[in-house]
Design goal:
heterodimer, A: 85 residues, mainly beta, Folate-binding fold, four-stranded antiparallel sheet, two-stranded antiparallel ribbon, B: alpha+beta, Ubiquitin-like (UB roll), FAD/NAD(P)-binding domain, 23 helices, 23% helix
Chain lengths: 85, 967
């Protein structure tokens, strides 16, 4: 992947972007166990496949969601947070 | 060999002559010649020595894989003579010879070849003890060009290119594709590594005038089309994702971004394998055609053509048309086609020997050329029969037995290839989206069919790029197989070379398989086939056929090795390009320069480390700046701090969530220290939050954290969707810290604001005018003095600085740098995030418990800190002092604290404090050592230990009297 599609600015070189990582829903800090919390904080899933990630177009500080197949190196779709479920 | 009479379309300019030197001898050539063609035209026959046995070699392909004709050109090693344009005054030597090309002493190695079997290195030189000796010897014996360490550093630019359709290869199919795509409205770029466009259309002629006219017309149409740009002498060096292709010329690399890519790269002609197939004078048929049509060089006087396709017959006709005698066409097949070329050969009375092979070439008496071809009948497929052996005298042999697709870029793009039995060739089976193939690389060989295939691919590629719709074009199948399945003839005495780069013979492959290296990747590594400079362009296909036959598999099952960038070697100077180290400068940069600032990098910023005073040492300068702040007044540029604003009804709520302290209750016009943790509870940043209005906060981050903190806060706000916005003012504001007992006097002369302690107390935030400039003022105490941080719009920063410097002049004010600030804050025991903390430090470790408001509903890191709070501490940041009057070596940051022979911590900050009169510092230590008054021991780099005592912080002015109004 050398091109990423910013939902606001369109296709741009990937060097203009920052990849934060996979979206991981935070467990409720008040009800989860210490182990659940530690798993959330420390463990990442490195297995290739379809991932939903946070990306930022650095030049315009635009955060958005990327659905990406990391096995096939294909960007499936990108959209602003809250725009598409 | 000699120059032919003018040949239509030749590349050389006969009106001019240029001279050059090769191996100490002067030669002449024409502009347009390659080094090889000029040498051959001047009568040279041997151009180089082989890599391993130092055998005499000459032209093989004339297509950028004549690895045995590489030369050293001044500081440039391994220049490919077959394709490098001749320039005036070139001084060249052959690479890899001992005592020159003609009498290379290392050619003796050929006689020892049977003692140098395949895998020789692996089997003979595994002894660790002797390895360095052998390595030195073999590096000397088997090197190529010499690296000149005094070569000038070349600064090359990189270019960025864009097009709709990129066509790689300007042969018949590539040109047809370009025209079809351009006719549909696409912006087309055609690249070709050769000096002129046209590809095989320019030389694979078969002396056919009609074909030549057709081709010239095609070329002219492409060159004159307004939407087609043709880039010659340009190599498409690799394929990268999203159709990104580095285009490499002699002095620049262009990163070309295309919407679709057509690979029309053609095919590499493949050599036949027979004894002494490497002698000068034996070459691929296409090499002879290139010599004739490009450079007007006669490749030989009397030729034998070894053929297994119509291309061989066309080459024979090309020879005859240019006055070269063809003694015979020896055909591996029993039946030949009835095409125009074959018919013409028969018609001209050229002898054709069917069902026959060349088992060996007879060397000329000096061993540096060919005297005859030994022709022997074959059974099918290709077992030589002893009977009917005939020796045909000749001084050159053409090999025309088949093709391998130049599919490197297709492989890199992820194309699945399929071995097509009817063509005996790998062809693209499944192409990635936006990648197209046409022509020989796609298994289409006859001229008319290639034009149609190009048209098909060009139309489809344009459609993919959004121009027009893909035309359905029927491409006829080949009428004969262009490639022989087994152009390999065994010989009991060997020297039948498969890989000319590495001098690998047929038996080397047989031995490798016998030893168990019977998989293509293993065989490659064991035998080194395809690992030479040409990367298997003429050897991989034959190696694959040999392996397939030895293990009883089909080529499809054996598969190919991985094709990696680059397609041809790319000079390091083009890859390196220029170095970029972007740096940021504050609006006051020129002012610091004028004051003798010594610069240091702080993240991406340049900051004054200290200001050089004439005749003073670095440490005297720093101590002088510290003294000025403690006793009078100093000024430091803090414009590198991250400067953010959060505005909106939920601005306070936002800060409550991202910082560990409480901000909802922060009074208007006040500031509060702010520490940020990540989700694991590790301290990542600090700063000051000030409240300008109920819904409006101004806050700072560390210098190095500014960009990432702003980015992450933006993400959190996107996620939380709070009703507030964040603005990054880092570059928009200039900021200075005016500090010292006399700072108020300096400022008082420049502002109408009430600076009394009651009106503007410690930690207050005020908006006021300073020297007529609207400013935000904060009374902060990082350096432990009465002081003001003054933030103004960046474009007025210099005016503010000048006004303050002028006002401070009468008070002995000095600018101070980062080093002085570090010492001043150390005296106060204030930590610097990422110097006194690391990637595991939590607020408890560094005594920031007081800032933690665990009873807030939520903040980032809170859940982890709840867990951490229950656990025993692993480390504690403490202050320490060295013994008063200590005169030995002072420990450095990161020196270890040692307790009972074990590591028990490390120093994070250390410096001599004139105010304290001792060397002071901070260190992480094990909790049991953290008691004030404890003796600790710090180990220096030389292993000796320095005693120190744990001390309460701040070291200086523990009751912060200096920030209070004198009583």
């Amino acid at each position: 992947m050398k091109i990423m599609i910013c939902p606001v600015n369109g296709p741009r070189p990937v060097s203009e972007f920052f990849c934060w990582g996979e979206i991981r829903p935070m467990p409720d800090p008040d009800t989860c166990s210490d182990d659940e919390w530690a798993d959330y904080v420390f463990n990442r899933n490195g297995a290739p496949g379809v991932k939903k990630e946070w990306w930022c177009h650095s030049a315009s500080n635009t955060w958005f969601i990327v659905e990406r197949d990391t096995e096939k190196d294909v960007v499936l779709r990108t959209y602003l947070y809250g725009e598409a479920a | 060999m000699k120059r032919l009479p003018p040949v239509a379309g030749e590349w050389i300019d006969r009106t001019r002559e240029i001279s050059f030197v090769f191996e100490g001898k002067s030669y002449r050539g024409h502009p347009g010649d390659s080094i090889s063609s000029a040498l051959l035209a001047s009568g040279a026959s041997m151009l180089g020595r082989s890599f391993k046995y130092h055998r005499p070699r000459s032209v093989l392909s004339m297509a950028n894989h004549d690895i045995n004709a590489m030369v050293q050109w001044a500081e440039r090693p391994n220049v490919r003579a077959d394709v490098t344009p001749l320039t005036d005054g070139m001084a060249l030597t052959a690479v890899n010879t001992f005592g020159g090309l003609r009498a290379d002493k290392a050619s003796i190695l050929g006689a020892f070849s049977r003692f140098l079997p395949v895998g020789f290195y692996y089997k003979s030189f595994y002894s660790k003890k002797l390895f360095p000796l052998w390595e030195r010897m073999f590096r000397r014996l088997t090197g190529l060009g010499k690296v000149d360490f005094t070569a000038p550093h070349l600064c090359t630019a990189k270019c960025y290119g864009f097009c709709d359709v990129l066509v790689i290869g300007s042969g018949p199919s590539g040109l047809a594709a370009a025209l079809a795509a351009a006719d549909q409205g696409a912006d087309v770029v055609v690249v070709d590594e050769n000096a002129r466009a046209g590809g095989s259309g320019g030389y694979a002629r078969g002396a056919d005038e009609v074909l030549a006219a057709t081709h010239n017309d095609l070329l002219q149409r492409a060159e004159s089309h307004s939407l087609v740009r043709i880039m010659t002498s340009t190599c498409a060096a690799g394929y990268y994702t999203d159709h990104w292709i580095p285009l490499v010329t002699a002095d620049v690399m262009t990163k070309m971004r295309a919407r679709s890519v057509i690979v029309a790269s053609g095919a590499y002609e493949q050599p036949a394998v027979f004894r002494y197939n490497d002698l000068p004078g034996i070459m691929l048929a296409s090499a002879a055609q290139r010599l004739i049509y490009r450079y007007a060089v006669s490749p030989m006087r009397r030729a034998v053509v070894l053929a297994a396709n119509a291309d061989g017959y066309r080459a024979a006709l090309d020879l005859v048309a240019h006055g070269i005698e063809v003694a015979a066409v020896v055909d591996l097949r029993s039946v030949i086609g009835d095409g125009e070329a074959e018919t013409a050969v028969i018609h001209q009375g050229i002898r054709i020997v069917l069902n026959a092979c060349i088992t060996e070439a007879v060397p000329a008496s000096d061993g540096k050329g060919v005297a005859a071809a030994v022709v022997v009948p074959v059974t099918q497929p290709n077992e030589a029969i002893g009977l009917g052996r005939e020796q045909i005298p000749c001084d050159g042999i053409l090999m025309s037995v088949g093709w391998a697709p130049a599919g490197n870029l297709l492989y890199q793009a992820g194309t699945r290839m399929r071995y097509e039995k009817s063509l005996e060739q790998f062809v693209p089976d499944v192409l990635p989206a936006g990648v197209f193939a046409c022509g020989r690389v796609n298994g289409v060989h006859s001229y008319a069919a290639r034009l149609l295939d190009g048209q098909r691919a060009g139309s489809a590629a344009a459609a993919h790029a959004g121009f027009g719709i893909a035309m359905g074009v029927a491409v006829p199948n080949e009428t004969e197989c262009p490639t022989h399945s087994w152009p390999i003839i065994a010989h009991p005495k060997g020297k039948n070379f498969v890989d000319f780069d590495e001098d690998l013979q047929l038996k080397d492959f047989e031995n490798a398989v016998q030893e168990g290296f019977d998989n293509i990747e293993l065989m490659k590594r064991f035998s080194t086939v395809g690992m030479g400079p040409s990367q298997g362009k003429h050897s991989n296909m034959n190696a694959l056929r040999i392996l397939a036959r030895l293990v009883g598999k089909e080529p499809q099952q054996v598969g190919t090795t991985t094709a990696r960038p680059f397609f041809h070697p790319v000079p390091m100077s083009l890859l390196g390009g220029r170095g970029f180290t972007p740096e940021r400068r504050t609006p006051l940069h020129s002012r610091h320069d004028a004051l003798g600032a010594q610069w240091m990098p702080a993240g991406v910023w340049q900051r004054p480390e200290y200001y050089q005073v004439a005749d003073k040492s670095r440490s005297d300068c720093i101590q002088g700046e510290v003294a000025a702040v403690r006793n009078g007044v100093g000024i430091i540029d803090v414009g590198t701090l991250g400067k953010l604003e959060v505005i909106g009804p939920q601005a306070a709520e936002f800060l409550e969530r991202v910082y560990i302290s409480r901000y909802a209750n922060l009074k208007l016009g006040m500031t509060r220290y702010a520490v940020m943790c990540d989700e694991t509870g590790v301290v990542i940043d600090d700063g000051v939050v000030g409240r300008l209005a109920e819904d409006h906060f101004y806050f700072t981050t560390t210098t190095s954290g500014a960009a990432t903190i702003y980015r992450e806060l933006s993400r959190l706000n996107t996620l939380w969707q709070l009703d507030c916005g964040i603005v990054n003012h880092t570059g928009a504001f200039a900021a200075v810290n005016l500090a010292g007992p006399r700072s108020r006097e300096v400022l008082a002369g420049l502002t109408d604001a009430d600076l009394s302690a009651s009106a503007f107390p410690y930690l207050a935030l005020r908006e006021a005018s300073v020297a007529g400039i609207p400013a935000r003022l904060m009374r902060v105490g990082f350096v432990g003095e009465w002081g003001y941080e003054i933030h103004v719009p960046a474009n007025q920063g210099a005016a503010l600085w000048d006004a303050l410097m002028q006002a401070g002049g009468g008070h002995g004010m000095r600018p101070f740098g980062v080093e002085a600030q570090r010492l001043l804050r150390l005296e106060k025991g204030h930590i610097i995030i990422s110097q006194d903390t690391d990637g595991l430090t939590n607020p408890f470790d560094v005594g920031l418990d007081w800032a933690l408001k665990m009873d807030k509903p939520f903040f980032v890191g809170q859940r982890s800190l709840r867990v951490i709070a229950q656990q025993p501490r692993k480390q504690k940041l403490v202050g320490f002092v060295l013994e008063p009057g200590y005169a030995g070596t002072v420990p450095l940051e990161c020196h270890l604290v040692i307790h009972q022979g074990e590591m028990a911590g490390r120093v994070t900050s250390i410096a001599f404090s004139a105010a304290v009169g001792q060397t002071i510092g901070m260190a992480f230590v094990a909790p049991e050592l953290a008691e004030v008054g404890n003796a600790i021991s710090i180990r220096l780099s030389d292993g000796s230990q320095v005693p120190a005592t744990v001390t309460r912080t701040p070291f200086f002015d523990p009751d912060n009297l200096k920030q209070k109004e004198a009583v």
